[in-house]
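Task card 7
Instruction: Convert sequence to structure tokens.
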Amino acid sequence: MKKFNTYHICMIAMAIVVNFIGGQIALYLHLPIYLDSIGTFFVAATCGPILGMIPNTLSGILMWALGDPFSLYYAPVGILVGLVTGFVWPKKKEGILGLLVAAMIITLPTSICSASITAILFGGITSSGSTVIVQILKPILGLTMACFAVQLVTDFIDRVLGMLIVDIVLRRFPKSILNKLK
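Output:
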């Protein structure tokens, strides 16, 4: 990053709003995916890993303050999403296969982190729609493995969807603004 500028501040603010709206949609519809990292993917892809850690962290605090008591505890996951995405995005290959591989690279460490939080702090019960699936699998796999299995699948779907949206947006985004973000 050359210099922190107004474009970075505006993109981070936009990302926080996008994360918040996506997270609220997933929360209120009890979706088994989260939709709270789309803005983070955008900032990490355009501004790099350091700035990529900011949006998900701040939107998680906002969601916590406005009624989702679980979101604050997942701040380390948001930080990790931004960090790993910032390193992976510039190296990802074009096409759907490249996107799937990049999404899996981002998903593995973040799923370990979020599954640990879910199992250790919350006993597998959170505000996410995936909680039902964890409870169904818990007698079969045990709590920790049920949390990880569900987290791995739901995180992967969430990452692929979020990254696909960002990839489409970036293809249509003005190059002049993208150049000021790099």
